[in-house]
Every structure is written in C-alpha cells, then in structure tokens.
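Thread: Newbie trying to understand structure tokens

Hi all, I'm a second-year student working on a class project, and my supervisor (Dr. K.) asked me to get a predicted structure for one chain before our next meeting. I've only ever worked with sequences, so writing a 3D structure as a token string is new to me. If someone could post the tokens and maybe explain what I'm looking at, I'd be very grateful. Here's the chain:
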Amino acid sequence: MIIDAHQHFWQLERWDYGWLTPDLDVLYRDFMPGDLTPHLRQHNIDGTILVQAAPTIAETEFLLKISDETPFVLGVVGWVDFEAASAIDNIIRLAKHPKLVGLRPMIQDIADDDWMLRPDLFPVFEAMIQHNLTFDALILPRHLPQLCRLLSRHPELRCVIDHGAKPDIENGKLDSWARDIAAVANSSNAYCKLSGLITEAGEGWTPSQLTPYVAHLLETFGTKRLVWGSDWPVVTLVDNYKNWLDLAISFIPDEPARGAILGLNAYELYGLSQR
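---
Reply by user tm_fold:
Sure, no problem. This is what the structure looks like when written as tokens:
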C-alpha cells in the first residue's frame, strides 16, 4: 500500500491563490484529478491526502467537493481562519465531513514568528483535538522552537511538519535546522513529511545534497513517524513524480520501513482507519 500524503489541486479561475503567479511557469495552470490519475496508476498509489493551497474557507469547501467525487482522495487537509471569531464554529461545521482530516494555517507566510503561540488561538487548537483533526505545520526552520513550545502546551494535538520544515538544502544549511527539528522530534509525538525536499534543493539538485537531511529525519523521527508525500504538482518545478518517489524509496532502509513511511504511517497520522 502506498499513500501519497501530500498533493494539491487548484483552478486558476478561483483566484484565491495569492502565491500562484505567471512567473511560476509550469504551475500556472489548472491541476485537477485527471492530471494526477496517470501518475497514481503508473506507480500503484492507493490513495492520497489532498492539501489546501489557498487561505480561504472556499478552498476547503472546494477540496471537500473534489473528495466527494474522487475515490482516491482519502482525506483533505483544509484551512480555517484561526483568528476569526467564527473559527471554532467553522471547525465544528467542516469536521462533519468524513474526509476532513486536518487543517493547515499557512504559517510560513505569517509575519509574526510567534503567531502559533498566541493565547487567543489556544481554544482553536483544542477544538482540533476534540474533532480529531491533524495540524499540518507549514513552517520554516525558524519556526521550529515555537512549534516545540506549542506541542508542549497541546500534547494531544496530532501534528505533522510539512516538507521537513523546508531546510535550506540549496545552500547546504544544516546545523541549526538539524538541532531544532531534533528537539521537536525528541520532545513530542509529531510526525514529519518526507516531501518537498527536492524543491528546497533547487534546480540541478543531486541526491547527495538531500542525503544528510533525509538521514537526519530518519534518525530523529524514525520509521514510524515519517510519511511520504509527492508535493505534486509543486514538485514539477524541479523534477517529476517518478524521480522523487524513486529517490525517497532509495533512502528508506528496508521493506518494513518502506511499508510504514509510504503508507501505514499516513493512516495513523490522519486517523484514516477511524473514518
């Protein structure tokens, strides 16, 4: 069983993707289920987790509608405005949909590095716990100490770090990232996604660039708390679906670990067996 635990769909005409501009070239078009299906069939992918790409409730509802019509979408990670007075009401309403498995505030784009620690957000994280939703932490390396503190406040919050917290692989910056992500792994039950790393390595990336980063994630999170994701179609900025999947498999030490990282861990992380 292989689960792609991080993929996206979007339609340009919806106009709520502030980051998606024409200069992104290959990404500046619609990507919908029909575009992903050939990759899933070619590589025997059994299902996916569909992740938000815009900070709007409309985006979450758009993705949930797709999930209703697309059997291979096993779960949706949506978005809610955590700062809104209606945040908890929106979580309660959206969580009634059986395929909503998580929420992802786009923390990497928020100016305040301490945003996730704001006292007024405490009830929102507690509502996520109550409604069995996973917190997808879209963060950068500088946010890792704050994430460590957040998870100590909410030890029951199921959390996964997207894209390994986006280390600066292109410039070979390793030490501070390695220290801070190890602190999260060692002090919490957080998972981490083995996704998005070749994008952080940049054009002309080589496997040797990624080796120390992936080795560190395997050492700190182990094979039970890493989940693989393609980050399709963003991955196409630097390579393709097949090459990233093949490379990820080559990093995983044995067959039991491959079964966990490529599939079983995603079931646990997103509570799929309970839905």
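A couple of things are worth pointing out once you decode it. Residues 3-274 form a domain with the TIM Barrel fold (CATH 3.20.20.140). The beta strands are 3-7, 47-51, 73-78, 100-103, 134-137, 159-161, 191-194, 226-228. Feel free to ask follow-ups in this thread.
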